[in-house]
């Protein structure tokens, strides 16, 4: 999909209710149009300008664009240097299912510096290129839940108290621990717990202080650390602990503990041998 010799658009493999793109445009990108989805993204370089709700908006690196469904907008470079961006298109039904009947969040102005929205958006925009490892079902659901909650907070939506279903959350907790070394689907978790995925995600956060995918990842990392102390190759450990590959394990390990696996093993083995 090219506009000029230099403009380009990359599209990630779509998943249910979500599309992702990364693009660069040197000037005019799009005329006035609208989506029936949320359009949420980050400008990576340059100035991204667009008309939205009777005003001209500008997005620069460090900000997040949040365009509400069915709102007219266009897109063009704000300077002669062009702009590069990543955008996420989310079916509002997914956001609604997570929020459980609350009004869809509306973020005024179309551009925000809200840190929680930024982090949630960044998590879902990590993998734009088709060749990159796709999201696990729980991983994407976790990131989408965080995005919905972040949007609601940024929009000033009132918090709704919910007593939650502890029994279902406890079943999920035990099941994730017992099966951390493989991919677990959302349908599978619903069958095990008897709770729908959106309610279960809210309950798990309420009773265990973290998301189901985050809990699953940490149990995988616990297993990986135990295996590292045996001296097994890191690639074999990654496969055995349920990670897609060694680089996937390294990213998650470094994010969780602040140092890469090889460095951790060197330090831990040295301490253990004293």
TrEMBL record:
Record InterPro entries: AraC-bd, AraC_XylS_family_regulators, Homeodomain-like_sf, HTH-like, HTH_AraC
GO MF terms held by the record: DNA-binding transcription factor activity; sequence-specific DNA binding
PROSITE patterns: HTH_ARAC_FAMILY_2
Keywords, ordered alphabetically: DNA-binding, Transcription, Transcription regulation
Domain HTH araC/xylS-type, residue spans: 170-267
Highest taxon of the lineage: Bacteria
Pfam (any one): HTH_18
Protein name in the entry: AraC family transcriptional regulator
Native organism: Caballeronia pedi
